[in-house]
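yo, tRNA modification GTPase MnmE is done. seq:
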Amino acid sequence: MKRSAPGGFGDAGDTIFALSSGQPPAAVAIVRISGAAASDALAALAGRVPPPRRASLARLRDPADGALLDQALILWFPGPATATGEDLAELHLHGGRSVVAAVLAALGRLEGLRPAVAGEFTRRAFANGRIDLAEAEGLADLLAAETETQRRNALALAEGGLSRAVEGWRMRLLDASARIEAMLDFADEDDVREEEDMVRRTILDLAEELAGRLAQPPAERLRDGIRVVLAGSPNAGKSTLFNALVEREAAITSPIAGTTRDIIEAPVAIGGTAFLLIDTAGLREGEEEIERIGVDRARAALLSADILLWLDDPQACPDRGRAIIVHPRADEPGREGAPAGADISVSARSGMGMTRLGEMLRERAAALLPREDMVALNRRQREALAECVEALALLRGTEDMILWGEALRLARSALDRLTGRAGVEDMLDRLFGAFCIGK
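structure:
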């Protein structure tokens, strides 16, 4: 399906080029050329166009003066069965800065070619129907993934996991719409009532399925990390434990009570899961204004915690349901025995109990993260799916087949926005502009 390519990305008919691999120096640098003039550009530099989809060694020369630029592997991919849906060429160069700069400069002097802007290759793939919007979002997430759970979800999205599910839902809606049209045409037939009941059950079952998807934790949990707040009285060992978990001196530690005055945040991956650890000021009645502000912020952080690491009297824990009660500094004299109600004893200095604490955090996180057999939905995708569910809910209050048909049309329209079939022009620049140049 051919889609329009809105402004902000130049003329969709231009032939574009860019470095699509990492910045040099590197062992190999890949320059990609996409558009109608890709074969002309390849012939201008290499003197020939190789057989499709076969790597070929060639000497690249500057068309302006015939100067040798590099000896490289060249590949030719005629459209539309390419990454962008257009004619596509790749130059696999030696990855030195001067080599890459010389080749890009030579391409820039060719008539009809221009440098690509950030995300333009992916945008052309979307415009030419090679990927849909959900798959493009998955690719963006994959490029930004830092943990194993982020990578798995992003890859499933980029590989069409959500798109296939949406297409299945859409086909069920189309089938129901066709049945409704048939019922309107043959309203006098005896079996219409039975058909109505069947369509209603089909639609309500689908609405329940979609509501179940919406009930899953959002993708932002994977991206931003599970919020873990360390809290307790002053000098309880929160900052020392915080530093041990993030494996660096992110927070100042001191035997002086009240050293931590403000919120300190640090992202960390534990066992492939992203966490955002938050160190807080000790909870007590502050003796000065700055400390009181810090304590107020600590109490506010408690409310936003997904998991609370409570380093204090178990009986004083403000939210036992979200908490892991930690007995810190357990290797110090006089602190060998954990108090009743503690979940774990640890020593940030010696490492005692730290492996088990990481396991406990992952176990708690598993219940807060999306199921691994389902692609997690981001905010935009959830909003579109929620609109679909709302449209289907209109069927509960009416027997009018015409209104049923309109509700199904609204539901399909919401699904089309989810995958980018329609109604998403206003957010495309923002999405593709977040890609790097060459993607």
